[in-house]
């Protein structure tokens, strides 16, 4: 058999699967922080296992105080290319049917288990790319370092720790997203609207939303009293206007909408905003509540997710439109507050996002609070680095490569010159973070081949 990268990977497929099984069997969900265990026992165990695999294949490794582990292709060379993956996983959740979350299985060429696609499988694809290059005898002029993190799913404090002690390579990519390349990640900002409250009318409280990065699927309103006649009139109008479901049990009203990620709020039906629309149609609502709710609905009009209500509508050619969604609703006895999530294109600044939102919100009588904007992340698509990666993707897959902009953030959002590069193929849903997470064996080997070709293109 000809000694090509593709053939080498095919010859080592079974080893790849067994190494991945070793990692997937470890429950590396974040645990209790203890001395020497910044993210608990599980992530540390997975890191130890990952480093042992790297050592077995002849790479120079280092454990950075159980935050991250590194594996260098050539320790004598500075690490010009960093490949960042993570070994921690999200909780198992419910609904697994094919196998247990930490009982890896191959069935009909498909790998199942928590972490096979996010991100233990892709980490191994990067490692096997390095191993293929090494064992096929290629000599590199620039160093390659695999960085295995343990805290991507709950904050990326692992990278923050590491980069305070080590400089990033001149080029970085993470196999923790999808192909072809994500070179633009929008910025983000959370804003809170706050106002004192006195219970005057029929509404006692309202609550909607469980996370500031998700369109609320459910809202619950509690009333002192609410007649069926008043309820039915408002229900009929709002269900028609907002395409939600509204139910009443005693003096409790529940609004059911459609949840969505805050980076794609147009896919949801915001139960919180629909609940405010319901409330303002009730004659028994207090005057101050009515005024406040109507103001919120002007700032965040139902179905409008471009930030125009708070004056932050922005758009640029490369990263697209700003998105804005009100995701947390808390109306209590003494106070009401609402929190929004905004994903901001490259053209966003403190002046046209934070300052403009503050001015607009305060004009409506609310206190405005924010920790400021996380800046957008952008690597120019005409850089030699990105051109080389796209060329390798096209060479291996035969598909046209292109750069993508997303509303969410990846593992390299704060890494200068870092991009997301695979390992999931375009249009494939691997049930990442869900039950029966899966990925095809051949797709992981394909990703490894792309990464190996990229190492040669960038470092030879």
Describe the protein in words:
The chain is 31% helix and 27% strand. With 460 residues, it is of the alpha+beta class. Strands 14-15-13-11-19-20-10-21 form an 8-stranded antiparallel sheet, with helices on one face. The longest helix is centred in the last third of the chain and has 19 residues, at 441-459. The two termini are 24 Å apart.
What's the arrangement of secondary structure elements?
Layout: H1 5-11, H2 13-24, H3 41-56, E1 60-64, E2 68-72, E3 79-86, E4 105-107, E5 110-112, H4 120-135, E6 143-149, H5 157-163, E7 171-174, E8 177-178, E9 181-185, E10 187-196, E11 203-208, E12 214-215, E13 218-223, H6 228-242, E14 245-249, E15 252-256, E16 260-261, H7 271-279, H8 287-299, E17 315-316, E18 320-321, E19 323-331, E20 335-344, H9 350-363, E21 367-374, E22 377-378, H10 384-397, E23 403-406, E24 418-420, E25 423-424, E26 438-440, H11 441-459
Helix pairs in contact: 1-11, 2-4, 4-11, 6-7, 7-8, 10-11
């Amino acid at each position: 058999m000809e000694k090509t990268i593709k053939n080498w990977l095919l010859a080592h497929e079974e080893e790849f699967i067994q190494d991945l099984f070793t990692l997937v069997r470890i429950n590396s969900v974040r645990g209790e922080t203890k001395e020497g265990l910044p993210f608990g026992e599980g992530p540390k165990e997975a890191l130890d296992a990952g480093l042992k695999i790297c050592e077995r294949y002849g790479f120079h490794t280092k454990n950075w105080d159980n935050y991250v582990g590194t594996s260098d292709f050539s320790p004598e060379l500075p690490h010009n290319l960093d490949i960042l993956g993570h070994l921690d996983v999200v909780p198992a959740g419910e609904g697994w049917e094919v196998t247990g979350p930490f009982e890896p299985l191959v069935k009909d060429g498909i790998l199942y288990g928590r972490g096979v696609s996010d991100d233990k499988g892709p980490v191994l694809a990067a490692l096997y790319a390095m191993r293929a290059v090494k064992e096929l005898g290629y000599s590199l002029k620039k160093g390659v370092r695999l960085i295995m993190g343990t805290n991507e799913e709950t904050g990326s404090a692992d990278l923050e720790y590491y980069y305070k002690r080590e400089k990033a390579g001149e080029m970085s990519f993470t196999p923790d997203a999808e192909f072809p390349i994500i070179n633009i990640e929008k910025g983000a900002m959370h804003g809170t609207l706050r106002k004192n409250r006195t219970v005057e009318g029929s509404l006692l409280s309202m609550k909607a939303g469980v996370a500031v990065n998700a369109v609320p699927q459910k809202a619950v309103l509690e009333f002192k009293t609410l007649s069926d006649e008043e309820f039915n009139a408002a229900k009929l109008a709002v269900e028609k206007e907002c395409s939600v479901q509204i139910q009443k049990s005693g003096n409790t009203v529940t609004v059911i909408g459609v949840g969505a990620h805050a980076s794609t709020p147009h896919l949801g039906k915001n139960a919180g905003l629909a609940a405010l629309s319901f409330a303002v149609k009730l004659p028994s609502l207090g005057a101050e509540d009515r005024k406040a709710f109507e103001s919120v609905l002007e700032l965040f009009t139902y179905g409008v997710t471009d930030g125009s209500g708070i004056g932050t509508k922005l758009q640029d050619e490369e990263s697209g439109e700003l998105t804005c969604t009100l995701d947390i609703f808390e109306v209590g006895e003494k106070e009401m507050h609402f929190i929004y999530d905004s994903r901001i294109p490259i053209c966003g600044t403190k002046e046209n996002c934070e300052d403009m939102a503050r001015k607009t919100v305060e004009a409506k009588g609310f206190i405005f609070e924010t920790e400021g904007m996380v800046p957008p992340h952008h690597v120019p698509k005409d850089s030699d680095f990105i051109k080389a990666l796209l060329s390798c993707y096209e060479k291996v897959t035969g598909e046209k490569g292109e750069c993508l902009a997303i509303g969410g953030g990846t593992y390299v959002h704060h890494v200068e010159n870092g991009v997301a590069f695979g390992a999931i193929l375009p249009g494939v849903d691997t049930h990442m973070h869900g039950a029966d997470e899966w990925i095809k064996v051949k797709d992981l080997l394909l990703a490894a081949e792309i990464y190996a070709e990229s190492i040669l293109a960038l470092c030879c």
